[in-house]
Amino acid sequence: MPNPAVSIDQLSIDTIRLLSVDMVQKANSGHPGLPMGAAPMAYVLWSKFLRFNPQDPKWPNRDRFVLSAGHGSALLYSMLHLYGYDLRMDEIKEFRQPGSRTPGHPESNVTPGIEVTTGPLGQGFANAVGMAMAEAHLGAMYNKPGYEGVQDHFTYAIVSDGDLMEGVASEAASLAGHLQLGKLILLYDDNNISLDGPTSLAYTENPMLRFDAYGWHTQHVVDGNSTDEIEAAIKAAQLVTDKPSIISVKTIIGFGSPLAGTNKAHGSPLGPDNVKKAKEFFGWNPDESFYVPQEVYDHLKGPGEKGAELQKEWDAKFAAYEGAFKDEAAQFHLSFNGNLPEGWD
Prior knowledge:
The chain is built from twelve helices and five strands.
């Protein structure tokens, strides 16, 4: 059992970490380091900011979340399971197995709640920019006086050192700055580790200065374990409406394990002994796997329940919108259902 003196916030974060570690270890394949380092930023984002309804993952006005660093998929599956999406514990235990709903990298056509398939570094970054462009475009098309919330949501992404090394990310970032996509907020998992070793082996630039030049709003969180720092940075980013935002969050890959801060935590299971030592570090039973305290389940269902209420409010407003703007509402439905207008050829 975890230490009962630990706060529910910390208990939830550690549950995300260790559930991810157990997934990778059971599969004997995967990337445990990113989930262990990035769990605090994911927890703050999903618990305090992200608007979503696990019962209706396709709600049109939900916030979008992209894990651009798709190799850290165990983190995303842990989040989806714990926050109430249709992803059972037995499916969590099938991580990286053929035919499972928890493949090695997130696939949007396989797992409920996955916005976009990611894995190739930089791709998810560009996807997030495209989603933010779509939100701005759809808002301009369909929002009307008195109905400004038809399309009004944020796009968030967690990006890695590897993502920022890629040319596609640079090109997309330049476009996002030019278009002043103020509802795009990226959390940069700044751990300075790649598969081969320190990023300094191949990468010595300061990427945040590059984003300054692109016209982005930039911030730095010095302690990636500080939920207060992360929350304050996201709040500040939301207030900047004329620039996309990127927040550098200084993390330790594999935090809590004997391999913390090294490339050995990046792309391989920690190993049975190191998994036990990590659980001991967090005050957990080292011999227990895939354990989720009931109080964590109870706590983490709250954001989804709030999102369901927000969707009810949106549904009511959209029903009124349909009465006032019949043509626009019909086109809106066509677009979101993936259909074309009648007579299109």
